[in-house]
Design a protein that fits this description.
The complex is a heterodimer of chains A (316) and B (374). Chain A has twelve helices and no strands. Chain A is mainly α and 316 residues long. In chain A, helix 2 packs across helix 12 and helix 4 packs parallel to helix 7. Chain B is α/β, with parallel strands linked by helices. The termini of chain B are far apart. Classes of the chains: A mainly alpha (316), B alpha/beta (374).
Chain lengths: 316, 374
């Protein structure tokens, strides 16, 4: 931060050259320019408001309808044995954290390695081009297709109809890997070539330059990229519905048994209601509120982590 | 300035992490109950444990929730899961293997029920029992009109697009004294394959064969009209659309107005009792095995108070499983579902009609359930 030097335009004497008559002559077009400026500003502000309205409305609706169930019981109970009123989403919250954690453990190393290959080794080679294209295609894969792929894979490996948290993580990893590859590649590209060349000139082997110079320099950007990737997959419903299934009970075992997650919890509460529909609606909205809170915490984390890392480094 | 916001967010994350870690551990409602106070049927001969997975008809999902809830306290070691993926996919998954039981609005075909299902031990026939009996209501949304009388032919004509306005003389003739507004009728049907559609079209085909020529079908046979996904989609379409009419499982349609249908010469409003009576008027389908209790529903009954526009949903399982533990869990769960307690729990949460004991059905059903794992 301290290394950046402020560049000031060297036009300190420009005001000396202004001719008062020319200013007067230009005043009419100037008025038109100001008017255009004002109108454009108005349009842009309107666009901002229109973008914000759905967001505010979603948050407002969730708070209004979900706050009735935002109590302690919501965070200390599962839905096992609960009929109608009561119950909670602890099982779904834990499921979401476990599945998302497992997804990150799969996707971040793989995605980062691919990005390192693309920026440091691949260059313009055929394999690198192919990888880039594959990543582009993977980004646009509908999430349900990722779910089906994971479902087919786990059915082949562990018998038909196998559902588990791990299968869910595998499906989500397919969605998250391209996000991580893309963001990491961008960040690694920003590391100045001079740094790499300096390292290589001092006789360091390539892997050491990557390990000691490239990665540490890019670390803040890599972290926020990874967290944004997590935020991308944490709200996925369709693939989890298919491969992680749903259960009312706690399940801490990723490898065996169905595992509830927050998006699927919201969906099932909405789609299969009993006679007392209000209880199900409230749980669904409270679930949405909790999911949004988790995403917001992640986003804040993504923004705070780079500064924290920089701070720790400076203090060292 | 940047640093302070940074540390603030860091503190926030730390606080969130703390809260979460404090919450890890078992859910309060899953902690083992005090054995001294628990006097439910937990004194079973062997205590079962494991995961029992089922899938199928979404119409059963509210009832399944009630059964899971009751069963959880009876068998604390067993976790029952039910995916309301629809009858068709449920039966497919069951045939492919890996399911403990399946819920279906339409029974398996007789030859399918004799064996060859992937989830069963080789050569094992199926056990099929009716567990969920519920009226299907013809629900509508029309300002100022709370109740309507609709004859089967009228219903068929509305859904085929022959009657397009609520003030049509055909409707008015059956509803003397009701002020029918000049509003366009917007019929809503299920866009997904659905057992509710199957029962609705079966009823129309049996009671209004001249007006409804499409027979019984789980997929809506016509192009026009508004389509809605799943029961909840139907309820939402009906709630939102003025002048709309549709068909819904009664338990999910409490907030809507219900039409009475013509049975014989009388107008009958939907009710669980009427549904039970219509089942009592029906015969068991012949040519099926002893564990295969399937109804041939009598849609044209004229019995007093019977409401023949009903849905009978079945649970199916295997007589024999490869896995003895799975067999024990299925048997215990089916026993609970068909018990008086289980049926009452479903009635309270889903608004279904409990299995009536009068027709000797309960005896047949429990005999069928006894075949599981025997």
């Amino acid at each position: 931060m301290s290394q950046t030097t402020m560049v000031r335009p060297a036009g300190g004497t420009a005001s000396d050259k202004i001719d008062p008559a020319a200013v007067l002559a230009a005043s009419r077009p100037n008025l038109r320019r100001r008017l255009t400026n004002q109108i454009t500003l108005g349009v842009v502000i309107l666009a901002v408001v229109m973008t914000a309205v759905p967001l505010v409305s979603v948050i407002w609706a969730s708070v209004e309808r979900g706050s009735a169930r935002l109590d302690v019981a919501l965070f200390t109970n599962s839905m096992r044995g609960v009929v109608g009123q009561g119950g909670g989403l602890l099982h779904a919250l834990m499921g979401t954290l476990l599945v998302t954690g497992a997804t990150a453990l799969i996707a971040i190393p793989l995605g980062l390695s691919a990005a390192i290959y693309l920026t440091e080794y691949g260059g313009t080679s055929k394999l690198a081009g192919l990888t880039r294209r594959a990543v582009d295609i993977m980004v646009s894969i509908p999430s349900i297709v990722a779910g089906l792929a994971a479902y087919a894979l786990f059915s082949l490996l562990f018998g038909p109809g196998t559902r588990s948290g791990l299968a869910g993580a595998a499906a989500l990893a397919m969605i998250m890997i391209p996000v991580v590859v893309r963001s990491s590649e961008e960040v690694l590209r920003l590391v100045p070539a001079d740094l790499r060349e300096a390292g290589l000139a001092l006789g360091a082997p390539r892997w050491r330059v990557i390990r000691r110079i490239v990665l540490p320099t890019a670390l803040p950007g890599l972290t926020s990229g990874a967290v944004l990737g997590v935020a991308r997959i944490i709200g996925e419903t369709a693939p989890l519905l298919l491969v992680a299934g749903f259960t009312d009970a706690m399940n801490y075992n990723l490898a065996e048994g169905r595992m509830a997650t927050l998006p699927v919890f919201i969906y099932t509460q909405w789609s299969s209601k009993g006679l007392d529909t209000a209880a199900y609606d409230q749980r669904a909205w409270a679930g949405a509120l909790v999911l949004m809170a988790v995403v917001v915490v992640l986003q804040l984390g993504a923004r705070a982590l780079p500064t924290q890392i920089a701070k720790i480094r400076r203090n060292r | 300035m940047k640093l302070t916001t940074g540390s603030k967010t860091a503190a926030l994350i730390a606080a969130a992490a703390l809260t979460l870690s404090a919450l890890t551990g078992c859910a309060q409602n899953e902690e083992p109950a005090d054995p001294g106070t628990d006097n439910t049927s937990s004194q079973t001969e062997t205590s079962l444990s494991g995961e029992l997975n089922g899938a199928g008809a979404s119409s059963q999902s509210a009832a399944q929730e009630a059964w899971r809830g009751g069963f959880a306290s009876a068998e604390p070691g067993v976790t029952v899961n039910y995916d309301p993926v629809g009858s068709g996919s449920g039966r497919e998954q069951f045939a492919a293997g890996g399911l403990g039981f399946v819920g279906s609005d339409a029974p398996f075909k007789p030859e399918e029920a004799q064996g060859g299902q992937g989830s069963c031990a080789a050569g094992s026939p199926l056990v099929e029992i009716p567990v969920y009996i519920s009226p299907i209501v013809v629900a509508f949304n029309l300002d100022g009109v709370e109740a309507l009388n609709l004859a089967p032919t009228t219903i068929a004509d509305i859904f085929t697009g022959k009657i397009t306005n609520w003030n049509d003389p055909v409707i008015a003739a059956d509803n003397a004294g009701t002020q029918l507004p000049d509003v366009k009728i917007s019929p809503v049907h299920r866009s997904d394959q659905s057992g509710t559609t199957g029962n609705f079209t079966d009823y129309l085909a049996a009671t209004a064969p001249s007006a409804w020529t499409f027979g019984e079908t789980e997929e809506w046979p016509l192009d026009g009209g508004e389509g809605a996904e799943k029961t909840q989609g139907m309820v939402e379409a009906l709630t939102a659309g003025q002048g709309s009419i549709g068909y819904v499982d009664a338990g999910q349609a409490r907030a809507l107005s219900w039409a009475s249908i013509k049975v014989g010469a009388a107008w009958v409003a939907p009710s669980a009792e009427g549904a039970a009576k219509a089942v009592a008027e029906s015969q068991l389908e012949s040519g099926r095995g002893p564990g295969d209790v399937v109804y041939e529903l009598n849609r044209t009954t004229t019995a007093d108070g019977a409401y023949p526009l009903i849905l009978v949903s079945y649970l199916a399982a295997c007589e024999k499983y490869e896995d003895a533990n799975l067999s024990g869990m299925v048997s215990a769960y089916f026993k609970y579902v068909t018990s008086e307690e289980g049926q009452q729990a479903a009635a309270a949460n889903a608004g279904s009609a409990p299995l009536t004991s009068e027709v000797g059905l309960a005896a047949k059903v429990s005999a069928a359930v006894e075949r599981i794992g025997s």
